[in-house]
């Protein structure tokens, strides 16, 4: 069954003329990610779960990579490891040319699914939070947080508390918080899963705009095939039990992406291919 | 199968761990007790040796006068409990039956619940004198509100979906009551029983300590006034052990009922 | 409570029914009237229930004496409150955030919760005399367990994502406790404070009722032995007022931290 997966050519390695990022302003540090032989096993309540097996990733700086797969296939676990929050059972993660062993907020920003804003802080204070932990001077802190809130389109909402913001706005604040230390890599774990369809699409556009402007390497987890095809340079398809990579799909749709592209035959083809990979794994 | 066995194994380890914690706590208690004595922090007059207290406890449980006191207290506790729990549940169900009345009365119940009942003890003496009825009345008064409030939350724990499904399949009122409401409410109600017993026993012991001619509370108070610390400490240990064993037993039952819940 | 008045009852014949809040006020008024009328008309012997006006008169008459004893009681309450809530909440935060400690302390504390603590009071009077010390020790212990258990449970319910975010930002242990754990626990801490604080107040008064030569509780018991019902009720009224005042104070604090409660995972308040 593994034979059905026909991996496409690997993403070009940094410096080999990767499409896109050359035109954008690259952050000062290199946002490449290289994962080899990654494996993870959970042992909880006397039960052993093999969550991830033989994960290999090679992501060039400035690329937009989407990880898609059925729920429980280990997408979140993989992202936690890329964030340095969970130590893999085996394997190696090299990020920005250095082995990643612990959270490094200057290198990797993380956006969680929901409820990750602190309710006792305003939008502005939430975005400042990472800086205040590092004791960045107040004036600089305020300015940087303001800039990031403006970048995500929330100028004027600085003093709102999370409960005074809509679901989409909260995720914008989360993104601003993930960007405030200006890390070259941004990880997002199903950031729009709790939003309604319309908000979700416009948040996708918004994220693409931010990505174009900042040139970050983005790793985006979702279980939505449409979202995956709409956003990605490359789609990494995973299957469950144990979580493995079963396909890598290069998305050759032109940028900037538009809503109309979702109706094109090429878009349907891409979705079809991912779906077949996931389904064949589920049947087998 | 194997998963089931492993969870059961985990539960067994947890139970063994629970026993170990209690044994450890007892060791620490008696350890500090003996240490306080041998270091001379407290005179043996104020803190008799643990061995003497345990011997007194063994003595007490065979002494007819002590057993008489236990009997009086148990009778008061039992009657108050048997009145308060059904009364509280009936009131809770009655109030919840009507949407309107529950909105009128619930805030009042919560307000009254937030007032500590113990300070009303003198009123019961003024009304009933120093009698069995006064102790039971005060026990019921101390207990009924916690039962009432637990009944509210028990009723809320019944999922509307479960009731709707039962209705859709044509269940009768009786079937819904017995097959949906009862199993859903059982764990919450068992917790109510546990809390009710704590409130009840505290209320009745206090009433006995305050003014009584018999009963455990009266015995404890008298021992304290007469500096009979051996008996006092023995009594405290016995009452504490009984209370802890009772609640742990109910808690065990609660854990068994949890399986019904989703 | 205010919003129940605005919403119409969804059930039948809403037009005929009075708003629940109005009815509650009416009911409260009826209770007050009954308290005045029933004893006056002789339906209830005044020994059991002195009329409202008699009770208030007794309170006004004895004002200087009540004031003096109230001060004594309040001092004991203040000390006990600081001990019970300070220790309970502090230890609760620590124990709740260290899993190993929690697995030991939580079952012990909730087991001990079942012990009727009143029986310890005679021991404390034997050890510390009938002065304020025995009251303070007793009331502190009485309020301690609910504070401790409530705070431990509160720390447990803190969204794990909050801690994950802190960890992804490399917050130090100290930063995590002070800037995440503590603010996240504040709503539960306040609830524990409400419950524990009320118990501390009652603990002091009950201890005074049992054995004392001073304090509101002592005054209540003395009046009870003299069968002076109005003064017994006046004392009880005073204690109830004290509990309500404390409750109101904590509620006020609670209101100031509403952002905590409104922003739960599912509740999109301002969506
Ligand atoms: N902390 C954990 N302890 C034990 N098992 C876990 C833990 N986290 C995740 N798992 C298991 O690992 C697998 C992958 O989970 P996850 O990474 O959350 O998947 P996804 O994000 O794709 O839904 C699941 O089977 C899940 O049950
Ligand atoms: Mg996930």
Automatic annotation (TrEMBL), chain A:
Residues 33-265 form the ABC transporter domain. GO terms for molecular function: ATP binding; ATP hydrolysis activity. PROSITE patterns: ABC_TRANSPORTER_1 (PS00211), ABC_TRANSPORTER_2 (PS50893). The keyword rRNA-binding does not apply. InterPro entries: AAA+_ATPase (IPR003593), ABC_transporter-like_ATP-bd (IPR003439), ABC_transporter-like_CS (IPR017871), ABC_transporter_ATP-bind (IPR050166), P-loop_NTPase (IPR027417). Residues 13-24 have a biased composition (Low complexity). Residues 1-24 are annotated as: Disordered. Keywords: ATP-binding, Nucleotide-binding, Transport. The keyword Nucleotide-binding applies. Belongs to the ABC transporter superfamily. This is NitT/TauT family transport system ATP-binding protein.
Automatic annotation (TrEMBL), chain B:
It is found in: Cell membrane. Keywords: Cell membrane, Membrane, Transmembrane, Transmembrane helix, Transport. One of its GO terms (cellular component) is plasma membrane. This is NitT/TauT family transport system permease protein. The lineage of its organism: Bacteria, Pseudomonadati, Pseudomonadota, Alphaproteobacteria, Rhodospirillales. It is a multi-pass membrane protein. Belongs to the binding-protein-dependent transport system permease family. Pfam families: BPD_transp_1 (PF00528). SUPFAM superfamilies: MetI-like. The chain crosses the membrane at residues 20-42, 77-96, 108-130, 136-155, 176-199, 232-253. Residues 70-250 form the ABC transmembrane type-1 domain. GO terms for biological process: transmembrane transport.
From TrEMBL, chain C:
It is found in: Cell membrane. One of its GO terms (cellular component) is plasma membrane. One of its GO terms (biological process) is transmembrane transport. The keyword Cell membrane applies. PROSITE patterns: ABC_TM1. The chain crosses the membrane at residues 21-38, 76-99, 111-130, 136-155, 176-193, 232-253. Keywords: Cell membrane, Membrane, Transmembrane, Transmembrane helix, Transport. Its main location: membrane. Residues 70-250 form the ABC transmembrane type-1 domain. Signal peptide: none annotated. It is a multi-pass membrane protein. Pfam families: BPD_transp_1. Belongs to the binding-protein-dependent transport system permease family. This is NitT/TauT family transport system permease protein/taurine transport system permease protein. The lineage of its organism: Bacteria, Pseudomonadati, Pseudomonadota, Alphaproteobacteria, Rhodospirillales.
């Amino acid at each position: 069954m593994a034979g059905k997966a026909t991996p496409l050519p690997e993403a070009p390695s940094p410096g080999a003329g990767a499409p896109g990022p050359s035109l954008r302003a690259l952050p000062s540090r290199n946002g490449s990610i290289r994962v080899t032989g990654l494996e993870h096993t959970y042992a909880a309540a006397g039960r052993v779960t093999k969550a991830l097996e033989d994960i290999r990733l090679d992501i060039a700086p400035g690329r937009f990579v989407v990880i898609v797969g059925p729920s429980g296939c280990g997408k979140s676990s993989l992202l936690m490891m890329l964030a340095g929050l969970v130590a893999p059972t085996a394997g190696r993660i090299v990020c920005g040319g250095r082995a990643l062993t612990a959270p490094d907020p200057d290198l990797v920003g993380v956006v969680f699914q929901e409820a990750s804003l602190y309710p006792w802080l305003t939008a502005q204070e939430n975005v400042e939070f990472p800086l205040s932990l590092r004791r960045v001077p107040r004036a600089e802190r305020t300015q940087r947080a303001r800039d990031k809130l403006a970048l995500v389109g929330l100028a004027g909402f600085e003093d709102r508390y999370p409960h005074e913001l809509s679901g989409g706005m909260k995720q914008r604040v989360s993104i601003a918080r993930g960007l405030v230390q200006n890390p070259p890599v941004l990880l997002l774990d199903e950031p729009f899963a709790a939003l309604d369809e319309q908000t979700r699409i416009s948040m996708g556009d918004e994220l693409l705009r931010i990505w174009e402007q900042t040139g970050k390497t983005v790793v985006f987890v979702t279980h939505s095939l449409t979202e995956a095809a709409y956003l990605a340079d490359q789609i990494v398809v995973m299957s469950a039990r144990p979580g493995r990579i079963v396909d890598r799909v290069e998305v050759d749709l032109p940028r900037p992406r538009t809503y109309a592209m979702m109706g094109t035959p090429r878009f349907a083809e891409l979705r079809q291919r991912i779906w077949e990979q996931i389904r064949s794994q589920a049947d087998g | 199968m194997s998963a089931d066995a492993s969870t059961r194994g985990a539960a067994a380890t947890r139970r063994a761990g629970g026993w170990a914690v209690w044994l450890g706590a007892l060791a620490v208690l008696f350890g500090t007790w003996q240490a306080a004595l041998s270091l001379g922090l407290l005179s043996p007059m104020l803190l008799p040796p643990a061995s003497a207290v345990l011997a007194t406890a063994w003595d007490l449980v065979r002494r007819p006068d002590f057993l008489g006191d236990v009997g009086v207290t148990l009778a008061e506790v039992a009657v108050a409990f048997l009145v308060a729990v059904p009364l509280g549940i009936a009131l809770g169900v009655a109030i919840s039956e009507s949407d309107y009345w529950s909105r009128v009365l619930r805030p009042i119940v919560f307000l009254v619940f937030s007032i500590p009942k113990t300070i009303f003890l003198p009123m019961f003496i003024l009304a009933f004198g120093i009698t069995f009825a006064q102790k039971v009345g005060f026990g019921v008064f101390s207990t009924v509100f916690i039962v009432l409030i637990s009944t509210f939350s028990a009723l809320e724990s019944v999922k509307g979906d479960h009731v709707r499904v039962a209705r859709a399949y044509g269940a009768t009122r009786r079937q819904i009551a017995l097959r949906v409401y009862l199993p859903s409410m059982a764990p919450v109600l068992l917790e109510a029983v546990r809390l009710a017993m704590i409130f009840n026993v505290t209320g009745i012991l206090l009433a006995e300590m305050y003014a009584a001619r018999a009963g455990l509370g009266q015995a404890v108070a008298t021992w304290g006034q007469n500096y009979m610390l051996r008996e006092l400490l023995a009594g405290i240990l016995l009452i504490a052990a009984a209370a802890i064993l009772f609640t742990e037993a109910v808690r065990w039952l609660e854990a068994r009922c949890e399986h019904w819940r989703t | 409570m205010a919003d129940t008045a605005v919403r119409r009852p969804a059930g039948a014949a809403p037009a005929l029914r009075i708003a629940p809040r109005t009815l509650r006020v009416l009911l409260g008024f009826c209770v007050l009237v009954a308290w005045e009328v029933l004893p006056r008309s002789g339906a209830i012997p005044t020994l059991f229930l002195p009329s409202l006006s008699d009770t208030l008169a007794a309170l006004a008459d004895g004002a200087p004496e009540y004031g003096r004893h109230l001060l004594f009681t309040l001092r004991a309450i203040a000390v006990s409150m600081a001990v019970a809530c300070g220790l309970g909440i502090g230890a609760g935060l620590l124990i709740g955030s260290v899993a190993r400690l929690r697995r030991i302390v939580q079952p012990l504390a909730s087991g001990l919760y079942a012990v009727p603590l009143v029986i310890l009071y005679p021991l404390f009077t034997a050890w510390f005399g009938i002065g304020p010390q025995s009251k303070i020790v007793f009331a502190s212990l009485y309020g301690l367990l609910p504070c401790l258990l409530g705070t431990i449970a509160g720390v447990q319910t803190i969204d794990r994502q909050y801690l994950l975010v802190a960890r992804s930002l490399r917050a130090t242990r100290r930063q995590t406790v002070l800037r995440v754990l503590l603010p996240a626990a504040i709503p539960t801490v306040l609830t524990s404070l409400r419950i524990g604080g009320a118990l501390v107040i009652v603990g002091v008064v009950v201890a005074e009722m049992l054995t004392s030569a001073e304090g509101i509780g002592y005054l209540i018991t003395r009046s009870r032995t003299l069968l002076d019902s109005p003064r017994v009720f006046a004392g009880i009224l005073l204690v109830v007022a004290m509990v309500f005042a404390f409750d109101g104070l904590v509620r006020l604090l609670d209101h100031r931290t509403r952002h905590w409660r409104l922003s739960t995972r599912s509740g999109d308040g301002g969506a």
